[in-house]
Amino acid sequence: MARRPPLRAAAFLGALTLTAFALLAYTPLIGAISQRLDAVPDPGPADAIVVLGAGSARDGVLSSSSLRRFVGGLLLYRRGLAPRLILMGPTYQGSPIEAETRAAIARELGIPASAIVVEGGGLTTRQEAELAAARVRTLGGRRVLLVTSAQHMHRARRFFERAGLEVVPAPVIEVSPRAESPDGRLELARLVIQEALARLYYRVIGQL
Amino acid sequence: MAVTSALVWVIGRRGLGLRSSALRPALVRLLEWAGLTAVFYAVNLFAGFLAVLALRKLTGSFISIYVNTDATLALLSAFQALVFQWWRAESE
Fold first, then answer.
1. Rounded to whole angstroms, how far apart are CA atoms A207 and B41?
2. Partner B contacted by A40 (CB < 8 A)
3. Which residues of A are less than 8 Å from B35 in CB distance?
4. Hey, are the CB atoms on A7 and B32 less than 8 Å from each other?
5. Residue A2 binned pLDDT confidence (cut-offs 50, 70, 90)
6. Distances in whole angstroms, Cα of residue A107 to Cα of each of A67, A100, A177, B80
7. Would you say the ipTM is above 0.85?
8. Pairing of strands A166-169, A48-51
9. Residue A22 contacts B where some CB pair is shorter than 8 Å
């Protein structure tokens, strides 16, 4: 009996998939795309620094993204760009509240407790924007330095502006666009594609 | 990769007696597998996305859509594609 022929459509799609894989992993293409799409750092004085949540493990260990954003916020505070540091981040399936973990580290690093605002309620970027806006209004300000990943900044900025805040973007680089190792480039591709899908989703449901 | 591929070519031809004309269809099978993996991954991603939305609605608790971005989903989709491919071959 003759062998079943290969599925032509699947083979064609496979050729496209492997070509895309090769381009993303072994050429600087994704770095160039990322640099074109991502927000450009433009930090300036503001009423508060808002550091968005990015995840922590059940034992309270901050994710790599969370730590990078947190350090970005600390550096802005140290540079004297704002008098308050609003730390965001909820609990993830029973983990300690990310914002509180960050606040504890900030205090240990010498940031005055009076300058730290802990906001652990926001589960989505939109909720974080609304909660941060309420906090900033209570503090008597409107202009915030927004700290999140370069990929996430565009979407986050829209939510924060919609919540009535004036946003100064302060993106942190979570994966360098100049990554030269194939796995670094693939990680960057994952972030870029993930954010593109997120933007598409929020556009479809009319929230962006 | 180039060295080990060349080594496998030599071993396959001389040691195992494999036909060189069978290499091209084997590469087409690779393309087929990669395409099936992409299809399974897209379907799994979409199903996971719908499952998160449904669970949010049914339970009232928050589940992040980012659970679907776990890298193991791609690996499991590749396994699905491989089993489907072999199943199809074994059904001859």
1. 26
2. no
3. 7, 9-17
4. yes
5. low
6. 15, 10, 32, 49
7. yes
8. unpaired
9. no
